[in-house]
UniProtKB/TrEMBL annotation, chain A:
CDD domains: STKc_CDK8_like. Residues 56-68, 85-100 have a biased composition (Low complexity). Residues 33-409 form the Protein kinase domain. GO terms for molecular function: kinase activity. InterPro entries: CDK (IPR050108), Kinase-like_dom_sf (IPR011009), Prot_kinase_dom (IPR000719), Ser/Thr_kinase_AS (IPR008271). Residues 455-470 have a biased composition (Polar residues). PANTHER family: CELL DIVISION PROTEIN KINASE (PTHR24056), CYCLIN-DEPENDENT KINASE 8-RELATED (PTHR24056:SF495). It holds the Pfam family Pkinase. Its EC number is 2.7.11.22, 2.7.11.23. This is Cyclin-dependent kinase 8. Keywords: ATP-binding, Kinase, Nucleotide-binding, Serine/threonine-protein kinase, Transferase. It is an enzyme of class 2 (transferase).
From TrEMBL, chain B:
Belongs to the cyclin family. Residues 168-233, 366-389 are annotated as: Disordered. The lineage of its organism: Eukaryota, Fungi, Dikarya, Basidiomycota, Agaricomycotina. The chain crosses the membrane at residues 274-292. Residues 172-196 have a biased composition (Basic and acidic residues). It comes from Kwoniella shivajii. Keywords: Cyclin, Membrane, Transmembrane, Transmembrane helix. InterPro entries: Cyclin-like_dom, Cyclin-like_sf, Cyclin/Ssn8, Cyclin_N. This is Cyclin-like domain-containing protein. CDD domains: CYCLIN_CCNC_rpt1 (cd20513).
Amino acid sequence: MAAAMTSSTAMVDPMHYYRAKRDRERRTVLKTYKILGFISSGTYGRVYKAVLLPSSSASKSGSTNKSTLPSSARAALSIPKDKIPSPSTSTTSSSNHTSNLDPLNNPDMCMRPGDLPAREGDVFAIKKFKPDKEGDVLTYAGISQSGAREIMLNRELNHRNLVALREVILEDKAIYMVFEYAEHDFLQIIHHHSQTTRTPIPSPTLRRLLHQLLCGVHFLHSNFVLHRDLKPANILVNSSGVVKIGDLGLARLWHKPLAQGGLFGGDKVVVTIWYRAPELILGAKHYTAAVDQWAIGCIYAELLALRPIFKGDEAKMDGKKQLPFQRDQMGKICEVLGPVKPDQWPGIVHMPEYKTYMTSGPYPNPNPLPTWYQHRSSSSQGYDLLTRLFEWDPARRLTAREALAHPWFQEEGGVSAKSVFEGSSVAYPTRRVTHEDNGDAKMGSLPPSMAQPRLPSSSNFRPASANVTQPAKKKPRV
Amino acid sequence: MSSSFWSSSHCLHWLTTRPSLLTSRQVDLQYCTPRQLYCLYIYFIQLIQKLGKRLLLRQIPIATACVFFKRFYLKNSICETNPYLVLAACVFVAAKVEETPVHIKSVVSEAKVVFNEYHIKIFPAEANKLGEMEFYLLEDLDFHLVIFHPYRALLHITGREPADAGKFPLSRVDEDQATKKKENDHRKRKDEEARKAGLGLNNRSSSTGSVVGVGNTTDKAKVKEEEEEGEYEAKRIRRLMGRGSGEGIGEVDEGVLQISWFILNDTYRTDVHLLYPPYVIALSAVYIAFCLTSMNSSARTRTSSSQLHNISSSTNSNELLGLPSPPSSASEFLAGFQVSLPTLFACVQDIVCLYNIWESFEPSSMRQSSSQSQSQSQAQAQSQAQGHAKILANASSDQPDKKEKFGSAEAEQLVRKMIESRMVDMGHPNNAGVNQTSKRANPISTYESALVVGRKRVRK
């Protein structure tokens, strides 16, 4: 009897029905969104620009639906006012068979509690995590720590200055996080001023950018979250001029009982080298929210100067898996701030790398920061804020809360304006989206017939003409 | 939000009611009795703890895994899934969420060892399967991964940890030291001034002190010092109370705190984490711990001298502040919290119900023997930890119904049987579950009556 039992369970997987049910309910990325193009890639995976498709339940036919697309979506899709783009027609008609009551593809009714409601035509950024591969076969090797963190924190936190997560979709062994779309970022704004207009960022804009960044960071810190990777590329600005902090992949909660080794135990290296605080360079095992504040100081300086203030070369890990001392970065900091004086940071003697720091000198002794600053701004309050963010001693460094109360933010009409762009005549370019074959057939933005001849990438790509975009046949959805 | 329970996903989406909890278990209750199902959850939580310990996880990740497991089965049925795979996935995800990640392969290999001990054969020991389960699990958890555990609430309620940690630029200790230093300097300066001014100071200092110093002239200096100390302390308390630290609210002695902590560990075998906010659970644990210590005076540990000092200083400072003195009795202490008493007592009963059933499922004597491999001190700590469980089990068992033996071996068999029967029924949709439901009366009513019986026992 018992033997018969075990043999039958061995034959049929107990998860069979569960899996079937779950797979039936799953809403797929491509049924829900149309990929408009590829934005960027990193070690984590790739980011795509996408538009929310009309809910299949609401659509009686593809054509009536198309005409209800809001103008913003039309612009995003590069749809001429009178033309219906055929690729999207095929997308909707293929999913028309779903019943009218199907809540899964109704964007107003959300997939699960906590999802942000959205309307068709809303534009999103979809971050696809790189799936694990064993040879050529996709496998499940577990969600990465940074993926888990990003899902956990973005799902829990909600703030005006934080990129909102609409939903998470798991499909084909890959994770897709659907974020609100932001047209600009700090890096792009800096780049636009340094390369195109060759003018400094208008000071009201700069002040509001920094203020909103601090608002977001203060929110994170008061929620026990350290960001640990603040840098211009990670700080976005949407088209209505609201700063949105992104990429919580290195962020973590710190109020929970820490594992052995504390913060250091989990991640040996945090913060991109140019924005890394001195206590991290000196090997601190325990650090605080002050590491984010240092990075904000660096970003502030970069907004002023349009180039990184401490642009050191990263020392690579040697063969023995020992973390090298970032001598060059420390040198770059000292070139601007002067070497650390004992009274500026009494605790420095306890830093693990203190001896290395002392012996790897001598570091130059000028303190050009005042002149550096005077070339760029004349506000003495602004200088005061910068020096307090560049405080060597993490305990003395300005906290986000203190920084928000700094009088500099009250200068020149303050920061009450909602949009950072208000009053500025600078027109920033929109985010570059490419349509090249991006190495991921599934996430291609074009129907297969068009994707074949590689199109030149351009930010203002439009479908060449309607007759070319005629799809060969309806693409079966995966 | 991760700083406020009230705006958290835990509070907004994952607190349910008992009726909906019962509804979610309808399918399983077609294949087992309510009591058996209760025991199955004890069994699975046991396995989670075993697996967590083997992976060297601490209590918090283990607790998180338990809550994930319970939440998963709000939407699913044990008999339609492989609970062993689910629980391994819960441990795997919880370890990541609590920042102590373990490799997927070590979860699989350790789970294999633990499950072999229990003769569990249906666990697929493949990383691929576990990874796939992780995806399903995350979806069924709606990707809500931040859990509020009652441990912190317990520490806040008992004044062991400030509720506001991290909200202020300086930690309380640092701020305290900084202020202390400042006040000391100030006092020194004042002393010097006083010395210079000679006898003229008496009137001034008594007006500044918040305590009416009636010391006689012989030890005037000493009294003055105490006065100043008192003034400092008063300011300090006011400042620290202003931060919501809970200091001076009341004193719970170490023994009660310890027992409360152990009770919280046990609560993960019950459903309270799906039904009540963490502070209610913590308060319930304190309530039960108070009851136990008053019932059994030997269980009360001696209050250490440092605590005595704390208690007296807290009393003094409350006096200095013109506040009512901290409650000296347990009832006063508990009454001081603005909590709905029916909710609190419902939670207390849910917790107390556990011990009787647990004892018959897995006698506490056996629990101890299983930990023989541990070191002496650990075993001692464990036996101390289980002292309260014994008391509670005995207290509530006027006549433990031992109609049939139901232990972990039987649990393992039952799980297999449930899955098989369910699969047969699913394969023949026409008579799915019909026989089962007609055999048994309405499962809800039987389960509720079982609970009522349990509660009546508790009242006795």
